[in-house]
Amino acid sequence: MINLKIKTYENLHETFLVLFFITIAGGFQDAYSYLMRGKVFANAQTGNIVLLFKNIVDLNFKASISYLIPVIAFAFGVYVAVRFEYAIEKKILHWRQYIVAFEIIIMIIVALIPENLNNLANALLSFSCAMQVYSFKKIYGLNFATTMCIGNLRSATENLSKYHITRDREYLEKSKKYYTVILIFGMGAALGYITSDLFGIKSILIAAAFLTISFIILFFEERGK
After folding, report:
1. Which residue, of 9, 53, 173, 182, has the greatest Cβ tally within 10 A?
2. In Å, how far from its chain's centre is CA 114?
3. 85-138: per-residue pLDDT in tens?
4. CA-to-CA distance for 210 and 29, rounded, in angstroms?
5. Are 184 and 22 in contact (CB under 8 A)?
């Protein structure tokens, strides 16, 4: 039987259950922003930077701005999250819960923003994703990214290679965890694709629901059977 009790927050944010809902929301947001908000990435700032400079070369400055805005918003989101961590003392909520709550509010606002204001919607989403990627960086002590895949793919394959060299199963277990996170991110992207087609710009509320679940989980500690 699973017992839940109020948690003191120590390392609970690194557990798989929290990471699952955070990561699936991350994949969802990238699919949503690309499909519904003008083919701009909420998370994948590398893609935005490539497209930014492509449009600069093409002298398409209007399109350039569409890609520059989320890059700046993402950087600002990381900056704010770091300041938030140092400024907020744990009282009722842990600082990470405030971050998640803020993300949820942002996504509700984005759901109300019309398509002619896509730059604003993308700025808010990128800001939100940046706060998330800073706030949730580990699972069981391993460094992970919940809003992008390149670092996870590198770490997964690095550990797999080390396992084949050393036969140390610890490397294999680490590799499995990284590949699992990539799969979860992909599931979120697939869900974002499916629901964006069904519900349009309001589909971002589904990502908000996933984050709400993670917000609630952070109150509890899961005990063994």
Report:
1. 182
2. 23
3. 887 765 667 788 888 999 999 999 999 999 999 999 999 999 998 998 888 877
4. 11
5. no
